Amino acid sequence: MPAKGVTRDMARAVDVVVVGAGVIGLALSWRAAEAGRSVVLCDPHPGEGASWAAAGMLAPVTEASVVEAPLTRLGLESARRWPAFAAALSEAAGGAEVGLREEGTLAVAFDSDDRRQLEQLLRVHHSLGLTSEWLPAADCRRLEPRLSPRIRGALRVAGDWQVDNRAVVRALLTAVSAAGVTQRRVSVRRLIGNGSRVDGVELADGTHLAAATVVLAAGAHSGTIEGLPAPARPPVRPVKGEILRLAGDPADPVLEHTVRASVEGRSVYVVPRRHGEVVVGASSQEAGFDTRVRAGAVEELLRAAVDLVPGLAELELVECRAGLRPGTPDNGPVLGRTPVAGLVLATGHYRNGMLLTPVTVDAIDEVLAGHDLPEVAAPFTLERFW
Predict the structure, then answer these.
(1) pLDDT band at 5; cut points 50, 70, 90
(2) Domain 105-158+238-327 belongs to what architecture?
(3) What is the 3-state secondary structure (H, E, C) of 142-153?
(4) 221-228: long-range contacts at Cβ-Cβ below 8 A with a sequence spacing of 24 or more?
């Protein structure tokens, strides 16, 4: 008999409770269930947070940094795994497409300062053994005729791809259901344990769920769960990002490549989808958990995007949305075991949640099997912040 005051759900422990159903939590739940584990996934709004708001860029090269070399290696390895991950997900979701595109990215220079910055980035790429090449303006416009005539050239980055983030989320929702994951559309109120061990979770409706392992994958909210022991609390904060979606004609796309630029100090990216949608993003603001969309941010993004690709001015603006990126002090994720037995972290992916999904899933799968984090993920444990 369960103890007094504890529901029967607490008496029947599952292998894994996953807290948070963004792309990371969904993918972890799917993989764990595919491996034969019993899984409960808890989130009141699965797939509707930062993963739904994102642009879906897979950009380990454009965002490469010498000072963040471990994160660059992690991103490159995850990008390498994306084609196999996409194929497996498509099969698990009954043939659903996830919009993986491998045309590459153009990082565009608008003026002499931009060009100097891109030339510096090119040197960084070469120092890290990464592949990118400088294209003169005329070659850029041959690739993308609708780019502004004002551009001074661009880096062509073949290794930076994209997926349709919303197609990925929909496919994962289908895959977790097909794999037998139990979904509880309720928020987790607190973790249950004694300070040195986590034994399960309490949901907002009062239900207690017992688990051998709790995986905390709640994105920007990961540090706010009640009952989270201080030594295991990830230093994750929300970083607000506004993003726009435009509707175009799939028969007459404005772009074939993802294009990134700094236009008179305004950072912008434009991501074309095969079905005609164009994603424009993104702002960055430290504003707590505020998800209101600012008129000024929308105006700034649109002005920069239209300066970069004038034809965007003719498209319909169909959505303005804000998401909360889970930022950390060093921009890297927080992965693996904690000092609290039974609690595993998979959070803090900041701008790279979609990119890092395959490598995160593989790493946490190793941890759930009783192994250490793989070498490429080992620098991203919670211990680095102690």
Answers:
(1) very low
(2) 2-Layer Sandwich (3.30)
(3) HHCCCCCCCCCE
(4) 221/20, 221/289, 222/19, 222/20, 222/326, 222/334, 222/345, 222/347, 222/348, 225/19, 225/188, 225/190, 225/191, 226/189, 226/190, 226/191, 227/190, 227/191, 227/192, 227/193, 227/202, 228/191
pLDDT at 274 over 90: yes
**pLDDT for residue 9:** 53
Of residues 99 and 66, more confidence is placed in 99
Residue type, 315: L
The helix, strand and coil proportions of the chain, stated in percent and rounded to the nearest 5, come to 35, 25, 40
Distances (CA, A) of 371 to 136, 196, 337, 364: 49, 20, 10, 9
| pLDDT tens-digit map of 354-386 | 999 999 999 999 999 999 999 999 999 999 998
**Residue 371: what residue type?**
H
Class of domain 8-52+168-235+330-385: alpha beta
**Residue 213, token pair as written in the block:** 């392992």
Q: Tokens 């927080």, residue?
A: 334
Tokens 């992690």 label which residue? 74
Q: Is residue 324 within 8 Å of 287, Cβ to Cβ?
A: no
And the tokens for 271? Answer: 């991501």
Q: What is the pLDDT of residues 135-169, one digit of tens each?
A: 999 999 999 999 999 999 999 999 999 999 999 99
Sequence-separated (6 or more) residues with CB below 8 Å from residue 146: 254, 255, 309, 310, 311
Q: Where are the domains of the chain?
A: 8-52+168-235+330-385, 105-158+238-327
Q: Please count the other Cβ atoms lying within 10 Å of the Cβ belonging to residue 303.
A: 15
**Pairing label, strands 161-162, 57-58:** antiparallel
Residues 6+ apart with CB under 8 A from 286: 237, 239, 240
For residue 32, the one-letter residue type is: A
Please, are residues 333 and 346 in contact by the beta-carbon 8 Å criterion? Answer: yes
